[in-house]
Amino acid sequence: MEGNSTIWIEKYRPRSLEDMVGQRQIVERLSSYVRSGSLPHLLFTGPAGVGKTTAAVALAKEFFGETWQMNFRELNASDERGIDVVRNQIKQFARTSPLGGATFKILFLDEADALTSDAQAALRRTMENYAQSCRFILSCNYSSKIIDPIQSRCAIYRFNRLGEGAVGEQVHRVAEAEGLSITDDAVEAIAYIAEGDMRKALNALQGAAILSDRIDAGMIYETTSTARPEEIAELLDLSVRGDFAGAQGALRTLLRDRGIAPGELIGQCFRALTKAEMDTALKVAYIDHIGEADFRISEGADAEIQMEAMIALFVLSAQKAA
Ligand SMILES: Nc1ncnc2c1ncn2[C@@H]1O[C@H](COP(=O)(O)OP(=O)(O)OP(=O)(O)O)[C@@H](O)[C@H]1O
């Protein structure tokens, strides 16, 4: 079956701006460039998997039609971060004339924030010198890492994490196209796991579809090694009630039996806490304990010991607050 051999994020990458889900304001503004036939340099910022590359490719297709591949080039700045990439590849592409009757070319530079500041300074000059023949679309996670003179030459587009509705819509589309049946709970589970990242969402769907063409929430949590939100809520609830043995048992089940990575589990506890309705002082203490454990694990401390220590501190803080 084709679906098993192709990566769905590529197979179902929207081919036009109109086919993208979410990001409506951005899609509308980008479409108006196509209608007017003119394009400034653009800076796309935002988290992974929300449509920055997709929008750049779709924009090029809509501007150039059949000749889009001749007039569009994608480079990833994290492959080569120094000034040479600007001097060689970028300048080389920018200076040559557009083809097939196009009035300019588009260079899409992914992970532009990986460029060194020297490389960014050279890029700024290239953007100025070849603005007639080439428009730049720079993409990055944080615009603060892009030097001001580049930012001021670009129209800035901030891509947000996709909402649960948008993720669900695309998951339904792909499931239908692949002939899968999927429960509402499974769609919800995918949206929970994805945290607004469509790449994560479609990979979770494809991972579960290897097991069966009838997908439920359990399969999604299982194949992505993620705890269910109810399990996290129970862990927190046991510790708030001061039941250390119970919380410790729940934690060990998740870590040892279910094989959930400590980093993932800490992230899930953090997300659950930020939304939880509980005493503010206790919530503050819990978030502080999470930050401490997260930091220590990142420094190389034993993850399981740190997680248990975190639970112990949860219980102590709850007892103090009682
Ligand atoms: N808004 C969207 N609508 C539909 N599908 C999307 C959308 N955003 C992302 N996708 C899907 O997720 C995949 C990854 O998205 P994309 O490459 O555009 O991410 P990105 O924002 O450029 O992330 P990165 O910063 O990691 O490069 C796409 O191939 C597409 O299948």
From TrEMBL:
Protein name: Replication factor C small subunit
UniProt entry tagged with the keyword ATP-binding: yes
Keyword vocabulary terms for this entry: ATP-binding, DNA replication, Nucleotide-binding
Organism: Methanofollis fontis
Biological processes annotated in GO: DNA repair; DNA-templated DNA replication
Residue stretches making up the AAA+ ATPase domain: 38-169
Protein task: Part of the RFC clamp loader complex which loads the PCNA sliding clamp onto DNA.
Subunit relationships: Heteromultimer composed of small subunits (RfcS) and large subunits (RfcL).
Entry GO terms, CC: DNA replication factor C complex
Similarity remark: Belongs to the activator 1 small subunits family. RfcS subfamily.
Family matches, as Gene3D superfamilies: 1.10.8.60, 1.20.272.10, P-loop containing nucleotide triphosphate hydrolases
Lineage: Archaea, Methanobacteriati, Methanobacteriota, Stenosarchaea group, Methanomicrobia
Residue numbers binding ATP: G46, P47, A48, G49, V50, G51, K52, T53
Recorded superkingdom: Archaea
GO MF annotation: an example: ATP binding
